[in-house]
Amino acid sequence: MSAVTTTAGRNTSPYVAVLRTEARLFRREPGNLFWALGFPPILLIILGSIPSFRQPSADIGGLRMIDVYVPVLVLVAVIMTGLQTMPPVLTGYRERGILRRMSTTPVRPSALLSAQMILNGGAALLSAVVSLLIGRLVFDVRLPGQPFGYALALLLASAAALAFGAMITAFARTAKIATAIGSATFFPSLFCAGVWVPVQAMPDLMARIVTLTPFGAAAQALGEAAGGDWPAWSHLGVLAAWAVVLSAAAVRWFRWE
Question: Where are the transmembrane segments (predicted)?
Fold first, then answer.
């Protein structure tokens, strides 16, 4: 983290210095970049190449499966960055004493947390844009009919995912533990987002339960906005509630050492 001190010494804001340094480190991690930016669009292309996914289905209101899966794969990037990418990095910094050393400089550890959330959130949003463009240009999937509602739902989903990741960081003592917790919560989150069975195609009781989770609510809200409707306030409310509760838990139990 010496680059932070050097940059800060040239009258650069400590927050800007940390963000620049973390951005350089983020770009040097090809694995993180692939899973955040590359995996969802690649999976979209694979699914769209399946002929049955391009045929209308009465089970999902006459939509094609590929129409339903674009919002789902937008969520995959959000879940990936929140649960898999960010927690091991921050926990690793704590484990190696970087946060403790930062506390003796003008740069506060909170700047590091903010930088990580900005970078991971930005990667997830960029992946969402790429997936939407591929869906439109390659598979003729309509762009969201309610763009403002779509953007709001996506921002709330990102906030909930990053808050979830911050909570994992708060409880995990080491990077290995953070990775294990992230992996244990990753696959249930994908199920709730509708990766294996779209929420719209789930039995009614299961769908009602799933939409009480942050990513189930996000899948429904994004699907509604994609179809041209404003997302149900109940789904947006679930997302906002999860973001607030998880953020409060992370702040309450987070330790810099």
Answer: 33-53, 68-90, 111-135, 147-170, 177-197, 232-254
